Q: What sequence folds into this?
């Protein structure tokens, strides 16, 4: 077959047009890929897709959600955060993500208490939550807490020299209560001498280290509040119980004499033996999962003997090297056999029981939730939440965990774990050699053979 000059010209024009159109289409597809994306989860368990619980939660978000990630410019860390948030944005587009380099915003870090590289601050409807773990469960639970519409009132007992929830002194609690209010909780003081009633809408009553003896009538009001099923946080100190002996007896508590001393505090850079660190936590809520060391200055030991109907467990303990020093904390401090109480010792306990109103009911719901229980936490120290010590390691985290649990804010989203199946392929040495030989030699030889055959056909034509 003879090809004329005119035919060659047509072929060249066709080839040129084909190349131009091919490059144009490829460029258009590349441009479109930067504007639009298609994501598919091909994993057998759907581990890159939001659970049904999280998807249902997102449908309840009717206002914008702002997520600020305080992460250094590490591509791996930022991509991990972006991938997590993108799962939520595919379901709910009104979620925005902003990155802030913590090295350039030290004031924001101090104000928010950011301690972990990559920590997220989630804001919704003028409320905020902080998330340190980059997981669906952690982020969904933060959104769940932000969605709570009912008010949680944290009421602080006043009038007896207690730590002031609004005070700025070193021993007061204003920094902690500011964090509580930023999470949507309401904080209120209550002087039982002026108002002889604890409001029915009190979520948690806080007794924070009274320095003056309570009146019998006030103690009676507190006990009646507990009889109604009220939740309580009692922060006590070494020394006098200031008239609260009846409360301790009603709860089955023995507040031991002395101040906790830990001679190993120097290992943690602490220069006073009466500041006791807690380095590990058990499986009990609300401390389960805590990762940070907490410090307790001038704490006292608590012995728990729950009364009938109550269930109790220690949540904060110090080790066997500690003891409760009954003497003066000056000069050389040493353990005195027969006088001091040898560790390990409990400095924080929790108590729960079925709500009194439910106990009297003829029939209760078989699927009753954990919120149908009365909750109490007693800690043998109040300094750990004070303005002086709140910023020490995990003290703030512990304080927030305690209040969330007492205010029954722990009924959160249950995100099932997505497990990968058959992620490991076991091959024998022979199978590995065959696969290697095929990729290294057979496939290149096959491609070369096909190319040679096509070249030969065209030459003969």
A:
């Amino acid at each position: 077959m003879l090809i004329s000059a005119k035919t060659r010209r047509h072929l060249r024009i066709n080839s040129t047009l084909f190349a131009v159109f091919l490059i144009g289409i490829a460029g258009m597809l590349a441009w479109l890929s930067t504007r639009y994306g298609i994501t598919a989860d091909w994993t057998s368990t759907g581990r890159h897709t939001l659970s049904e619980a999280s998807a249902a939660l997102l449908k309840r978000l009717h206002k914008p959600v702002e997520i600020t990630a305080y992460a250094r410019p590490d591509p791996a860390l930022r991509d991990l955060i972006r991938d997590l948030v993108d799962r939520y944005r595919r379901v709910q587009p009104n979620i925005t993500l902003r990155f802030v380099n913590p090295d350039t915003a030290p004031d924001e870090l101090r104000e928010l208490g950011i301690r972990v590289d990559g920590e997220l601050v989630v804001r919704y409807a003028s409320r905020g939550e902080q998330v340190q773990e980059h997981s669906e469960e952690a982020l969904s639970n933060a959104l769940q807490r932000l969605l709570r519409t009912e008010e949680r009132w944290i009421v602080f007992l006043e009038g007896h020299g207690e730590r002031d929830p609004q005070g700025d002194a070193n021993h007061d609690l204003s920094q902690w209560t500011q964090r509580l209010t930023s999470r949507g909780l309401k904080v209120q003081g209550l002087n039982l001498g002026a108002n002889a009633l604890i409001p029915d809408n009190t979520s948690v009553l806080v007794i924070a280290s009274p320095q003056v003896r309570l009146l019998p009538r006030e103690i009676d009001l507190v006990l009646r509040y507990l009889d109604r099923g009220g939740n309580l946080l009692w922060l006590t100190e070494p020394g006098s119980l200031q008239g609260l002996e009846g409360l301790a007896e009603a709860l089955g508590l023995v507040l031991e004499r002395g101040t906790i001393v830990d001679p190993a505090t120097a290992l943690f850079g602490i220069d006073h033996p009466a500041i006791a660190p807690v380095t590990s936590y058990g499986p009990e809520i609300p401390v389960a999962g805590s990762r940070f060391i907490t410090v307790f200055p001038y704490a006292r030991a608590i012995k728990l003997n729950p009364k009938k109907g109550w269930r109790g467990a220690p949540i904060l303990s110090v080790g066997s090297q500690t003891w409760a020093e009954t003497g003066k904390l000056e000069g050389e401090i040493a353990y005195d056999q027969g006088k001091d109480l040898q560790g390990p010792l409990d400095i924080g306990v929790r108590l729960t029981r079925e709500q009194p109103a439910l106990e009297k009911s003829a029939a209760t719901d078989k699927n009753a939730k954990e919120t149908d229980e009365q909750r109490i936490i007693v800690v043998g120290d109040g300094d750990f939440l004070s303005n002086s010590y709140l910023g020490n390691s995990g003290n703030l985290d512990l304080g927030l965990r305690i209040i969330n649990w007492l205010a029954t804010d722990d009924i959160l989203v249950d995100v099932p774990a997505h497990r990968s199946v058959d992620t490991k392929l076991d091959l024998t040495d022979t199978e590995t050699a065959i696969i290697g030989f095929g990729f290294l030699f057979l496939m290149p030889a096959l491609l070369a053979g096909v190319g040679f055959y096509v070249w030969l056909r065209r030459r003969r034509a």
Summary: The radius of gyration is 32 Å.
